[in-house]
Amino acid sequence: MKKKILLVDDREDNLLSMETILEPDGYELIKASSGRQALKILLAEFDFALILMDVKMPNLSGFETAALIYEREKLKHIPIVFITANTYGEENMFKGYRMGAVDYIYKPINPELLRTKVSVFIELYTKNHQLIAHEQKLLAINKSLENEVHERKISEAKAIELNQQLLENIDRLEAANKDLDRFAFMSSHDLQEPLRKIRTFSDLLYSKYKNMLDDEAVRYISRIQKAAERMQALIKDILEFSKVSNDNNSFINTDLNMLVEEILADIEPAVQEKKATFNIKHLPSLDVNPGLMRPLFSNLINNALKYSKKDTEPVIDIYAEQETGAEKVEGLNGLRSKKFWRIFVEDNGIGFDQKYAEQIFDMFVRLHGNSEYEGTGIGLALCKQIVEKHHGFISALSKENNGATFIISLPVN
Fold first, then answer.
1. How confident is the model at residue 12 (pLDDT cuts 50, 70, 90)?
2. Which pLDDT tens digit goes with each residue over 309-335?
């Protein structure tokens, strides 16, 4: 942008002379023929880089005009160079400086001197303007930083408060979970005694009086026996689930091949009845809690047998793959690699809709009724809890009538 200069002189020839000298340098020149006119111009415009003003003018002298100019805060930054035909004594010179003058130029005006002095003051004005702009920018940045620091302090205070609340909630939840586990264990344990009596006496009733009872009475006793069996299975699973929460036994290196072989030996009658085929490829030896691994594989293998197709012999493949995943580590930047064993239990059974792949690991969730397939809805929830106890995770892939694959991911270490 062109720098604006205000020329103030009561003589038109002097204004024309200064305009002729300065115009080639590209300045925007505004002329005023008196101090009053200069003040009127400055009331509307205050973005001048320099004022060149004659000292001796009628009504308002240059000194008086300068004093009035510098009364306004917005105009104090504009340097004034006085133009004079007289050589004043030191006292008058100091008066001009006190009024705000930065220099004097004497008439007759030396064009080269005028241009040089004007260029110097324009450059000083430009640099001063830049410094002011930088100062304002720094003040704005500083203000922004202050606000950010203030907001961060508030956020930190809120985070500390929320963290404290979270810790208190965790303590309460842990206490509630312990109470719940204790209650579940005690309740299940206490329920077993009366349940055993129900089963015992219903069996005695059936064996002793079955020939004296009609078909409807026999059917009622059969229902009592089956309900008692389901109740006993449910209590057993709840007890098993409670034990996982409280099981703090140390992990030991365990050959999973042997563990699976032992489970298959235990369920040999069911395997033969279903004419099932098991293909077990080399499984790893891992540091695990064998007491928890047994019900994990037992549930998955029994499910594969239970949910087999009626007209197809079950084929269950159990195999493992090692892979390197990534985990986020608190206190470190980025991710670090972590080795996992992925163990697959794959069957050719009835499968399920993939949209239920997460729900099936919730407590008491069953996709089929008791009339079709027996169960308590706790088995897969127990599997999930066991795997998480080992710092791993479990998932499932399936399609309806096209088998299911359960994937157990366990860390190598």
1. very high
2. 888 899 999 999 988 665 554 444 555
Helix (H) or strand (E) holding 278: strand 277-280
Measure CA of the first residue to CA of the last residue in the chain; give whole Å: 71
Quote the CA–CA distance of 363 and 360 in Å, as a whole number.
8
Q: Which fold is adopted by the domain 4-109?
A: Rossmann fold (3.40.50)
What is the rounded CA–CA span in Å between residue 322 and residue 346? Answer: 17
Q: DSSP per residue over 107-158, as a string? A: SSP-HHHHHHHHHHHHHHHHHHHHHHHHHHHHHHHHHHHHHHHHHHHHHHHH
* Sign of torsion over alpha carbons 215, 216, 222, 225: negative
Q: What is the pLDDT of residues 138-177, one digit of tens each?
A: 888 988 888 888 888 888 888 898 888 888 888 888 777 7
Domain 135-246 has CATH 1.10.287: yes
At a CB cut-off of 8 Å and minimum separation 6, what does 11 contact?
54
CB 299 within 8 A of CB 289: no
Q: CATH class for domain 248-411?
A: alpha beta
Domain coordinates in residue numbering, the chain: 4-109, 135-246, 248-411
Torsion of CA 129, 130, 132, 138, to 10 degrees: 170
Nearest to 387 by CA among 406, 366, 405: 406
CA distance 289 to 411: 13
Is 345 a residue whose pLDDT tops 80? yes
